[in-house]
Amino acid sequence: MATRDPRVDAYIAKSADFAKPILTHLRKLVHAACPAVLETMKWSFPHFDYKGMLCSMAAFKEHCAFGFWKGELIVGTGPCGAQGEGMGHFGRIAVLSDLPSEKVLIGYIKEAVRLNDEGIKKPATSKPKVKRELVVPDDLTAALKENKKALATFEQFSPSHKREYVEWISEAKREETRRLRLATAVQWMAEGKPRNWKYVKC
């Protein structure tokens, strides 16, 4: 059974005059397409839930926005899917005619309902982190080759421990500082110590 949230009524009532008919229209279509929808407020604007987040609408000073939680699967990335002109999937909505027809919108909403019914997840948006390849400076490589114990320690280090030494040496601003750090690093590694060995709890 659908529920209407009085906070959504209040949100529409305090919106700009141009926005009221747009928000009222969108709300009506959501309820028509999904009789069991639940209204709520999230992030200070109206959301519609059905077995998870379905869609949302918002009003701004000069336009409204309407979007689906799983928009890429519903409207794709074409003209309706483009988000470059405002929040949501239909650009900046200033008048009712900026929206697709009732038939098209109801079709989108029903598709959102189907996705939630079938438990289809929202596509992952974050790109996998690309691990930076560790580049060992030539002077460190040469110094390690001259000290077998230090070289053995460095080769057994985890990538993070190797990076700590490489960055410490590479960040030296003066050549003299770099040489000093290089010598210290080789000495510590010959003793089996990581860069931050002083802070390692026994």
Could you list some keywords that capture this structure?
elongated; 4-stranded antiparallel sheet; 202 residues; alpha+beta; 44% helix
Written as H for each helix and E for each strand, in order along the chain, the element string is: HHEEEEHHHHHH
Largest sheet: 4 strands, antiparallel
Content of β-strand: 5-15%
Radius of gyration over alpha carbons? 29 Å
| Secondary structure category | alpha+beta
Helix count from the secondary structure assignment: 8
The assigned CATH architecture of the largest domain is: Alpha-Beta Complex
What is the CATH T-level topology of the largest domain? Aspartate Aminotransferase, domain 1
Q: First CA to last CA: what distance?
A: 61 Å
Number of extended strands:
4
Numbering strands along the chain, what is their spatial order in the largest sheet? 1-2-3-4
